[in-house]
TrEMBL record:
UniProt similarity note: Belongs to the GSP E family.
Top-level taxon: Bacteria
Keyword list, A-Z: ATP-binding, Nucleotide-binding
Full protein name: Competence protein ComGA
One GO location term (cellular component): plasma membrane
AAA+ ATPase domain boundaries: 128-264
The keyword ATP-binding belongs to this UniProt entry's keyword annotation: yes
GO MF annotation terms: ATP binding; ATP hydrolysis activity
Length: 324
């Protein structure tokens, strides 16, 4: 099973796969690869072979190999030319067998020149305090954007960057990265207190998940630190409204947020991957709260940007409809 697993992983990594899907059907198991935004057929195997392979994968990820009726998730490090985190998740099906998905994440973060065009944000890293927020759905490149900004802060500005992530999935050399571990007593609340005593210039928070974390992020932003974090929202406007629902005040948001970027990773007609984003500046946020929660008339929304790219022939209308 080790050789079969390594063969699948090698071929998937060579195709720049982000996820490997093992999908049981009536008489066999279909394997599909997520490449960019598309699922492509890879190969098939018998259920007997898959059962053995699944046991091997669960063992490697420290999952309970004897349990088949509950969802499980674990991860381990895989080495192929470089180190990767493999997050292995299983899901019980009505067929009496489990499906499985492997998320492939390079352990070390390297700057990408093709996908991430963030030059217009780099000047924000010179700020002494404030909150820079990246929003969008899962898979829109939010974490990669934060890593890109952090790498710039370390290499170009020689700043001290400390991160709190749940978990740390990609390592940046020269940056202090803390992984949340509630069993060991390492949570966002305790980590915030410790970090603020360690003279950080930039603090990266993996995600604002609830009102408590939102309050701590605001506190850190107001206390003389530049904070980068993410939030699940479909637009810049939606991000502000979500933060209000979490109990933050208009004044707190105006005082702290210096930029919100709502982004997507899209595939162009020539099969390149690009970051497309709407960006709300500090002045735009002032306007939003002073004008009954309305954005400036000249604000370029993500649908506007995508429509323009479609008109120029960079992307097709199908891609536009997918993200609007």
């Amino acid at each position: 099973m080790k050789l079969l697993f390594e063969d699948i992983m090698t071929k998937a990594i060579k195709q720049k796969t982000s996820d490997i899907h093992f999908i049981p059907v009536e008489n066999e198991v279909v394997i599909k690869l997520r490449v960019n935004e598309s699922l492509i057929d890879f190969q098939k195997m018998t259920k007997h072979t898959y059962a053995k392979l699944l046991t091997y994968m669960k063992y490697q990820a420290c999952l309970d190999v004897s349990t088949h009726h509950i969802a499980q998730s674990g991860r381990y490090i895989y080495n192929y030319k470089q180190l990767y985190y493999l997050r292995i998740s299983t899901l019980p099906l009505s067929l009496g067998i489990e499906s499985c998905v492997i998320r492939i994440i390079p352990q070390y973060f390297y700057q990408s020149t093709e996908e991430m065009q963030l030059d217009y944000l780099y000047h924000l890293m010179t700020k002494k305090q404030g909150l820079v927020l990246f929003t969008g759905p899962t898979g829109s490149g939010k974490s990669t954007s934060m890593y890109q900004m952090s790498l710039y802060a370390k290499e170009q500005l020689n700043l001290n960057v400390i991160t709190i992530e749940d978990p740390v999935e990609r390592i940046i050399d020269g940056i202090t990265q803390i992984s949340v571990n509630t069993k060991a007593g390492i949570d966002y609340h305790n980590s915030f207190k410790a970090i603020l005593r360690c003279d950080p210039d930039v603090i990266l928070i993996g995600e604002i998940r609830n009102a408590e974390i939102a309050k701590q992020v605001i506190h850190a932003s107001l206390s003389g630190h530049l904070v980068l974090t993410t939030l699940h929202a479909n637009s810049c406007e939606g991000a502000l409204l979500r933060l209000l629902e979490m109990g933050l005040t208009n004044q707190e948001l105006v005082q702290t947020i210096i930029n919100i970027t709502n982004q997507r990773l899209i595939t162009s007609n020539d099969k390149h991957r690009y970051l497309v984003a709407e960006s709300l500046s500090h002045e735009d946020i002032h306007y939003f709260f002073n004008n009954n929660y309305r954005l400036p008339e000249d604000f370029q929304t993500l649908p506007n940007i995508l429509q323009r790219l479609s008109q120029k022939g960079v992307i097709c209308e199908k891609v536009v409809q997918k993200y609007i």
